[in-house]
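Q: Predict the assembly, please.
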Amino acid sequence: MAEQGVVPFAQAAQTQGGEDAIGGSLADTAYRQLRRSVLSGQRPPGSPLSVSALARDMGLSRSPVREAVQRLIHDGLATHVPHRGAQVVELDRRELMEIYEVKEPLEALASRLATARFSQADVERLEAMLVEQDRAVAGPVLAEESTLMELDRAFHSYIHRAAGNRVLCDTLAAWSSRTNLAFPSGWANPEYARLSVAEHHDIARAITSGDADEAERVTARHVRLVRTRLARWQARQAQDRAAGGVA
Amino acid sequence: MAEQGVVPFAQAAQTQGGEDAIGGSLADTAYRQLRRSVLSGQRPPGSPLSVSALARDMGLSRSPVREAVQRLIHDGLATHVPHRGAQVVELDRRELMEIYEVKEPLEALASRLATARFSQADVERLEAMLVEQDRAVAGPVLAEESTLMELDRAFHSYIHRAAGNRVLCDTLAAWSSRTNLAFPSGWANPEYARLSVAEHHDIARAITSGDADEAERVTARHVRLVRTRLARWQARQAQDRAAGGVA
DNA sequence: GCAGCCGGGATTGCATGCAGTCACCGACGC
DNA sequence: GCGTCGGTGACTGCATGCAATCCCGGCTGC
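A: Predicted assembly structure:
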């Protein structure tokens, strides 16, 4: 049970945006650029996405930009307000919880499938990622939030790909980008970050040891815990906002 | 555990196409019309979806049709061949199996969530659906395939909505339309149809009795069995085709 | 008879024009 | 001061023009 080390999907340009490199069409380029700016927080939730304005800024016509915006809408990263144009989506708590609810069994499935297909090279790669994660949360001060998010994304994404199910992989990638959108500074909390990394160790241990049932269990647990922490963080945010609003 | 009988989502015009009725934009109308003709089998897999030709046929310009086709592509119901235009997707066995693999835990989750939220009205509605299904497979000759498919869709869709998780509901709806696309005459097999209906009874029994664990279990089992039957049916089809090809 | 080449046709992708619709803001009247 | 009305601006959605690209068929030459 181990063909190669790397699992070579087509890398789903749609869901994973392989850099702003030369994209086939202008619409692709615009899509990736917009997507990147949205996911990076450069355009925070609620930002307007006016086709005309974007076309002006990006120096091309409205057609490809319009297409790019509509793809974002379809991805759930933007919404279309009837006569106000599009804007970056503002996920409410309910929707966020819904995504985590469905992510739980699917992430668990991914880990189970990946366990059966993991090669020695995969094991080494995953362990290298864990070393990076340990380093990122080791010192008294954590690495950059964006770095932490990227490490997290890479870890889970690797398992998704290793599962060898493209539908599963694409679906989880789409959901993860949406949840990351709503979890801007959650990674700034050292406690949360370290807990996540610890849970990643549990997942990796189960997968590399070949225990599919255990991998499924600890992965589901991880998703559940992240959801709990996210809810707690959101509640705290709301509380702080309320307190700050008075002052 | 029971607010209303009906679970009122926005009905996800995107994924459920509420008839070809007056859609906001021409693009919406074109999308629904195309989607309908694809899912009904009127445009079988492999059919070309030329924007120009469709625009001519539908009596409108290329812009909205182009948008509609791209939505179909994003839905996974069509593919875009670089310089040949789009065409109705031809799902290969691998992809079909992948979809069933991910549907299993999600359908199971839907049943579990629905169990906790089912009201008395929901119970009655579900039982009415089962009566319809029984009637459809009762006689020596089954009802129309399209009728059977619609009954099946309605049954599962009702549970999805009852789960009260919109992301879950939309995702399953999208996947189901893709699998239905590849299961054209699977419902013509009386044995398969009766087995499915029997399993629906199991699911309904578990849900209405409030046993979430059991609902989850039998639902997963149902998806697994459908997948097995589909694989068997496909193998048989391939065999028949091979035999027919010789003659 | 077969291989290779070239042109016709069609298609996509992008740019742009045009009209309809609506939100926003200021002015006006009460 | 407040509510209401009208103008302005912008935006979307649709139609259409234009160039580039590529497939496919027929034709030519060997």
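The first strand of chain A starts at residue 48 and ends at 49. Chain A has a mean pLDDT of 86.
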